Amino acid sequence: MKKKFMHIRLVVFILLFCINAMGCQGKTPSVSFYALTPIAVPQNTSGGQGRLENVSIGIGPIHFPRTLQRPQIVTRPSANRLDLSEFHRWGGDLKQDFLNVLVQNISIITGSNQIFKYPWSPSFKPRYRVTLDVIQFDGRLGDTVLLNSIWEIKQGEPGNEKSEIKRSIIEQPISGEDYNALVKAKSDALKTLSVKITDKITVMDGT
Asked: pTM, whole model, 2 decimals?
């Protein structure tokens, strides 16, 4: 009788252990959400470049690769492979986030409050219009982010305008091994692109 009781206790213990183990395995890791961040506004200064404070600039439209138009953050562990993280996602639409931050950056750099994203109001007549084709905007965890884009700046009214087309390949080191460091590096790469675009507009505006 005692042996039978011990056997029952052992079976119950094993069953409870298995149920507990299955419960632990069934817990899904929480999802983390990320967003690109604009550059910081310089303290105690207007942050503008002076010459462009009263210049109107329209940003967009922007074209994004289809591989990036998804909620999961995409990394590139090798040249021909893409990884999608189910547990590290964008808090919104990456394409729109990119455009919003680009507008904020250029507004902060120039000090102008006349920077608007596409589509803008018909009453808005920008002196400069910037369109972008983003070819690559990904990276390898713990390594670098690559922002490869072609952008065009048009000056003047449609049909009577001059334009400049540039290509920027920006490699931004990632100062960490996690996704937070990856997203920060993406924001830094976008900051560099914002400076390049603003510098070109400054040159065009001075000619």
From this structure: 0.83
